[in-house]
């Protein structure tokens, strides 16, 4: 360019444009950016995750990139990326180079004991710097929950009430306090028939130190260990859980309570006619069905007649028998027999025994004396023979009363005959199954009867029976003594506690309850041995269905 004439400040020459144009310049550089993320709410001293996204949005790589975060007191890192350095008061990542248009996520798990503000900083060569801050509110648990049933054992179908206490252990009121209960598959609420139940605190916030007591009721539908889980919640992420369990057993069936009583005169004379009366009582809660009552008497007595329902008399056996279809709870059925004393006997014995279809039994006896009396006189002409006193209506069985014709007076009284059937002179056992068939897990009940079938005292009576596979003994009860039901298990067999002494003709009865954990058909074999030698044996078969 050549200047033809310089201009001056005072000349009036117009400005002359010599040339005009434009051009474009592209700046090439790296960039560094960081973005932090974390949950807005965390629990006291419970780990939560913090994420740092580091990126290079420029068109040139960033070298010597370092990312760091410092922790305030009460905050610490429990884990981080494998290449990170976890320090007591922070975390450091030595990344190196981040290529252009590249981003990288960094992770760490942190615990805090108070609200915290975390600042994550990224630095690179050339003075590149970026930071981001994230705040996390930390709440201290202030909700406690306890739940307990009123007792430890219940029967299936029985209401289980749980006492629950929800308490605010913090220093601030808790709002929107709720309680939920979750029963297992065999625990149902009695009114809603559901496993889940909710309840809410409706009278304002739960103040610091205040306890909210409440109750929830469930009904177990099956035996076993039954549990209910409880959960209490409140605003601010407050939550507490608890579990309460009870042991549930199947209802124990009411044992039939069959009792007998027998009454008559204590002293009669030969030729006298008198009545032996027995009462069959059901003092239990369930009906007793198909009861066979047998009255056995000595040969010195002659049966004249018996109340309605008696079977055909068997004078040769000195026995009269009745069949009662049912005796309801609280019912008392009288049975009577009219006898004539034919010969003297200082210890005459009348024995009555009742056995029901389910094996329930009872015994009774009456001892009286028969003394010599005046020769029997013929009744005056026209005078009717004495009648039995009226009795309440007994169960009726077709057949009507059994009667024996009167024996004419043939002179001197015959000598006394041997009484009763022949004895086995050993201890006899009888076992009756009261539940057959029965389902798996349900009670299997038996009645075991041990009798000293001799006229001598016996003792040291040992009774044993086998224990089939899958069968467990729930309990054994001796009706005579509460402690007599003790037993031992030896080599797959059950040994009852020894009976120290048994009087002649004495009977001891046991109630046995067992259960089976599998479908099967098994046989229970019972045997006895006493001081006098081996005793009797008996068996019963039981079917267990699914």
TrEMBL record:
<feature type="compositionally biased region" description="Pro residues">
    <location>
        <begin position="376"/>
        <end position="398"/>
    </location>
</feature>
<dbReference type="InterPro" id="IPR013783">
    <property type="entry name" value="Ig-like_fold"/>
</dbReference>
<dbReference type="InterPro" id="IPR001434">
    <property type="entry name" value="OmcB-like_DUF11"/>
</dbReference>
<dbReference type="InterPro" id="IPR051172">
    <property type="entry name" value="Chlamydia_OmcB"/>
</dbReference>
<protein>
    <submittedName>
        <fullName>Repeat domain protein</fullName>
    </submittedName>
</protein>
<dbReference type="Pfam" id="PF01345">
    <property type="entry name" value="DUF11"/>
</dbReference>
<feature type="region of interest" description="Disordered">
    <location>
        <begin position="375"/>
        <end position="425"/>
    </location>
</feature>
<dbReference type="InterPro" id="IPR047589">
    <property type="entry name" value="DUF11_rpt"/>
</dbReference>
<feature type="domain" description="DUF11">
    <location>
        <begin position="435"/>
        <end position="526"/>
    </location>
</feature>
């Amino acid at each position: 360019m050549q200047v033809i004439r310089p201009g001056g400040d005072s000349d009036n020459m117009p400005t002359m444009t010599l040339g005009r144009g434009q051009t474009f310049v592209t700046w090439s550089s790296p960039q560094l950016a960081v973005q932090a993320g974390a949950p807005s709410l965390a629990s006291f001293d419970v780990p939560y995750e913090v994420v740092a996204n580091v990126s290079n949005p420029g068109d040139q790589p960033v070298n010597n990139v370092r990312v760091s975060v410092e922790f305030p007191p009460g905050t610490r890192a429990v884990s981080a990326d494998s290449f990170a350095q976890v320090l007591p008061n922070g975390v450091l990542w030595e990344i190196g180079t981040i290529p252009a248009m590249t981003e990288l996520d960094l992770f760490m798990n942190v615990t805090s004991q108070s609200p915290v503000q975390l600042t994550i900083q990224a630095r690179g060569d050339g003075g590149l710097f970026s930071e981001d801050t994230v705040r996390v509110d930390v709440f201290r648990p202030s909700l406690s929950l306890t739940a307990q049933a009123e007792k430890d054992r219940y029967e299936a179908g029985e209401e289980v009430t749980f006492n629950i206490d929800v308490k605010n252990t913090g220093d601030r009121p808790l709002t929107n306090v709720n309680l939920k209960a979750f029963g297992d598959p065999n625990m149902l609420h009695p009114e809603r028939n559901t496993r889940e139940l909710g309840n809410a605190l409706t009278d304002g916030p739960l103040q610091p130190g205040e306890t909210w007591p409440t109750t929830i009721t469930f009904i177990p539908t099956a035996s076993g260990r039954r549990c209910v889980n409880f959960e209490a919640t409140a605003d601010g992420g407050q939550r507490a859980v608890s579990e309460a369990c009870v042991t549930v057993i199947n209802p124990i069936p009411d044992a039939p309570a069959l009792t007998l009583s027998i009454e008559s005169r204590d002293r009669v004379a030969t030729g006298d006619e008198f009545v032996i009366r027995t009462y069959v009582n059901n003092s239990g809660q369930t009906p007793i069905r198909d009861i066979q009552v047998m009255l056995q008497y000595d040969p010195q007595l002659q049966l004249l007649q018996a109340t309605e329902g008696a079977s055909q008399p068997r004078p040769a056996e000195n026995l009269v028998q009745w069949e009662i279809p049912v005796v309801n709870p609280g019912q008392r059925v009288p049975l009577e027999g009219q006898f004539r004393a034919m010969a003297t006997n200082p210890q005459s014995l009348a024995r009555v025994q009742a056995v029901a279809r389910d094996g329930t039994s009872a015994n009774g006896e009456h001892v009286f004396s028969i003394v010599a009396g005046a020769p029997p006189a013929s009744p005056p002409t026209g005078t009717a023979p004495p009648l039995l006193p009226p009795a309440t209506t007994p169960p009726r069985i077709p057949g009507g009363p059994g009667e024996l014709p009167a024996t004419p007076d043939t002179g001197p009284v015959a000598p006394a005959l041997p009484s009763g059937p022949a004895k086995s002179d050993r201890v006899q056992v009888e076992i009756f199954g009261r539940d057959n068939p029965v389902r798996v897990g349900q009670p299997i009940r038996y009645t075991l009867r041990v009798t000293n079938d001799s006229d001598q005292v016996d003792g040291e009576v040992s009774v044993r029976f086998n224990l089939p596979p899958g069968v467990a003994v729930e309990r054994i009860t001796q009706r005579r003594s509460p402690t007599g039901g003790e037993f031992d298990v030896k080599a797959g067999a059950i040994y009852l506690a020894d009976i120290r002494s048994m009087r002649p003709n004495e009977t001891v009865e046991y109630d046995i309850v067992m259960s089976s954990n599998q479908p099967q058909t098994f046989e229970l074999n019972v045997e006895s041995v006493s001081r006098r030698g081996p005793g009797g044996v008996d068996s019963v078969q039981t079917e267990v269905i699914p």
